[in-house]
Structures are given as C-alpha cells and as structure tokens.
Amino acid sequence: MPLACQPVQIAGRNRIWRKMVIDAIRDDPDWKNGEYTTQPWNTLKIAAEMFFIAAGAPLQMQKNLPTRDATDSADQGFAKQFSADHDANDLLFAVNASRNYDPSPQLEKITVPVMFVNSADDFINPPELGIAERETKRVKNGRFILIPTSERTRGHGTHVGRGVAAISQGAAGRLATLSCCRQSRTNFTSPTATVADRPALPRCDLAD
Q: Each residue of 88-132: pLDDT tens digit?
C-alpha cells in the first residue's frame, strides 16, 4: 500500500528541497568531504529547517505556532533535536538515495490490488499536481484516495505517529477490506471497459 508518495521520478519542488539539503552538506567546509571528526552543525541546522517545512502541515503549524516568537522557538527546538539525532553523512546518503527512484515505467506490470493514499496537506506530494490520479489509472487494479486536509491530518506524516488519527477505526477497517478484495478486482480484465464498469467497491472516506 503506497502512502505519502508519487509513482514518478523525484522532480520539481520535491527534488529542489532535497538538493538544497545535499548541497548544504557538500558545500560546508566543516563537512571535510565526509571525513569530519565533529558534526558540521551549521549544515545540520539548515537541513533540520528544510525537514521542518517539508514534513510540516500548514493548518497544524499555523494553529500551534500562531506568533513569530512561538514559531522561532519551535524552529530552534526542532533544529536542536534534529541535529543531535542525525549524522551528516547518513543524512546525505538518505536524502540522495531517492535520485534514481522512478517506478513509473513498471506500473502496467502491477496486477495485484493496490490502494494508494496521500493527504491533501502534504508539502512533498501536493495534490494539485494530479500525478497520483493520473498514474494510478495505469495500474490495472489500482485505486487512489486523497485524504482531505483536516484537524487530524499531519502533512507528510499523516500516516504515522499522531497523524494516524486522520484514519478513524471505521475507515481503517474499510481500507483493509478494499486492500484485500483481490477476487473482485482481478476478475475485472476487460481492456475495453470503462472505469464506470468496474465492480463497485465499498466507500472509504478516510476523512471520517
């Protein structure tokens, strides 16, 4: 089950923020071509602030950080914790690992039922691009669901931690049903039928 992603090459804004982190590390003299003996703290702070933005949810950030002072304090605290928890070389490797990511050429080969879920407040995978809807049509038994922005969504982290609250117990049950309904979906093999001809599936409103 794909969550918080796009089935295409990492490009556009998603690539730019990653490259900003990569370049910040590589261009820092304190990085010493990866042979540092102490962490390049200034670089890690820059990376932390990029992650703070990329992983944040606008609605929640505005609600929790309504003033300049509150925002600056949260940013400082996040950067301090992030820097303490990360190694520059490990971070560089992790962020750069997506450079060859691109499942799009293989989508038609997928025959198992696929439920693909993103949230509307995800900075990394903004819904206005329309990529998820377009590419999911290439998956024979694929279905895409966009979770609307709400008090319970958490941007790119909607599917983990406290963001799990965005999917209620009832909706999660329906999601599991949809993910397991292999028989009803794989029996639909007509290449000329329209989307409307597909077997009806239970409604799964993840915003409930």
A: 999 999 999 999 999 999 999 999 999 999 999 999 999 999 999
114 strand-pairing partners:
142
Question: At residue 34, what is the residue type?
Answer: G
126-173 tens-digit pLDDT: 999 999 999 999 999 999 999 999 988 899 988 876 555 555 444 455
Architecture of the CATH domain 12-100: Orthogonal Bundle (1.10)
Question: Considering only CA atoms, which of 27, 33, 43, 28 is closest in space to residue 86?
Answer: 43
| Distance separating alpha carbons of residues 5 and 126, to the nearest angstrom | 10
For residue 178, pLDDT over 60 is answered with no
Numbered ranges of CATH 1.10.1740.110 in the chain = 12-100
Rounded Cα distance between 101 and 14, Å, is 12
For the entire predicted model, the pTM comes to 0.75
Residue with tokens 């001809």: 197
* Total residue count of the chain as it appears in this document: 208
